[in-house]
Write a structure and sequence with these properties.
cell inner membrane, about 190 residues, Tetrahydropterin Synthase, Chain A, cilium, flagellum, alpha+beta, about 20% strand, flagellar rotation
Amino acid sequence: MKRLLLPIILLFVGVGGGVGAGLMLGGDDAPASEADDAQGAEDEHAEEDDGHGEDDADDHAGDDGHGEDEDHGEPARVEPAGEGTEYVRINNQFVVPIVRNGAVRSLVVLSLSLEVDTGGSSAVFNYEPRLRDSFLRVMFAHANAGGFDGRFTEAEALAPLRSALREAAQSVLGRGSTYDVLITDITRQDA
């Protein structure tokens, strides 16, 4: 029991420090408003009627196997539209306790990197407290749903976590600047 006390205390101090720093720094909501502006531009474009796509239903009626055996549970990855992307490593690891019957049974430690627009690393570092908070919420929910039980490193088991982490990053940094969240390291230490 004493072996678990120090990691649990460090976990709570780290989470508390991250949340406190996030609240203290606050930041502006520029990425969210940029995402809203981009959505508005897409809506304006959608309202234009150039006849594209009309009367093409007959051309696509054949059974060519398109769409079969696809996983529709994971949202599609946003592809970069600009010059390129860069990968930004989140500085500290994430520690997620696995609680069963009111006791910590194991700890999962993850390292993450983000794929963002070239030059977007400063935004990642500026919003790191918010990103860490969003990522921890996703990881805690995944752990509580049993996502880190059994063969948790299989691709099918990690797909919902990857998708939720990507959505969390895009909600903080904006959909047009964040393309993927990469799990660069994952380990589970059982008690």
